[in-house]
Amino acid sequence: MKIGFFDSGIGGITVLHQALRFLPNEDYIFYADTLHVPYGEKPKEEVRQYIFNAVDFIANQGVKALVIACNTATSIAVEDLRKKYDFPILGIEPAVKPAVQNCEGKRKKVLVLATNLTLKEEKFHNLVKSIDHHDIVESLPLPGLVQFAENFEFSEERVVPYLRDQLSSFDLKQYGTVVLGCTHFPYFKNSLKKLFAEDVDIISGSIGTAKNLKRILETRNQINDGTGEITFFKSGYKVEDKDTLTNYKNLLAMLDDLV
């Protein structure tokens, strides 16, 4: 059986990329709900319905595990999804814990970049409250990065001015770690490096999610020796257009240079 990956758009490919590093011989389904992207700026209940519709579709394909490769979808739906389905469902959350651990000794702050909906959710606030005992975590929504990614616009000439404008009110020298709290954001790691000091760590939760996926499958004795095939879906339809498939493969190749 295959492993399912789900996101509102192409951001989840950054998590799939990590899974391919740890589980290269598994077969995968990647489902992007491109008809309704972006999730982060929409009403919560509307997004919940999109998520459940998508996961129903993925479940019907027959999967042994599902990764919700979207911080927004994880924050508002992962617990209820786990109650409905009998296969393991993994979410992803901003890597606040390792960021705080990294910065406390350096007397530096943590900056979490995410979508509006992720940052508004109780799940995120509870996470920060449980870890941030010295009030060093700050956050900023960057919805424009989602749009850049979905438009396949990754040029630093376009992205860096946007980031510089959004970060203009922050003293960037105060931060020791930047947390990429949206799976679309790792595509822009090099652009972010242009603005922060060289010793600032820029991290996401993707590696932790991929490691956890491998651990769960090993525990269940469900590691396969497959072909590494990826079947792509967009809002309920199998992707067969060669240009789109090429674009997805190019994204995976681009991420090889950002690891």
TrEMBL record:
GO terms for biological process: cell wall organization; peptidoglycan biosynthetic process; regulation of cell shape. The keyword Isomerase applies. Pathway: Cell wall biogenesis; peptidoglycan biosynthesis. Coiled coil: none annotated. The active site is at 70 (proton donor/acceptor), 182 (proton donor/acceptor). Pfam families: Asp_Glu_race. GO terms for molecular function: glutamate racemase activity; identical protein binding. Keywords: Cell shape, Cell wall biogenesis/degradation, Isomerase, Peptidoglycan synthesis. It comes from the Bacteria. It catalyses: L-glutamate = D-glutamate. Substrate binds at residues 7-8, 39-40, 71-72, 183-184. InterPro entries: Asp/Glu/hydantoin_racemase (IPR015942), Asp/Glu_race (IPR001920), Asp/Glu_racemase_AS_1 (IPR018187), Glu_race (IPR004391). Provides the (R)-glutamate required for cell wall biosynthesis. NCBIfam families: glut_race. HAMAP family: Glu_racemase (MF_00258). Belongs to the aspartate/glutamate racemases family. This is Glutamate racemase. The gene is yrpC.
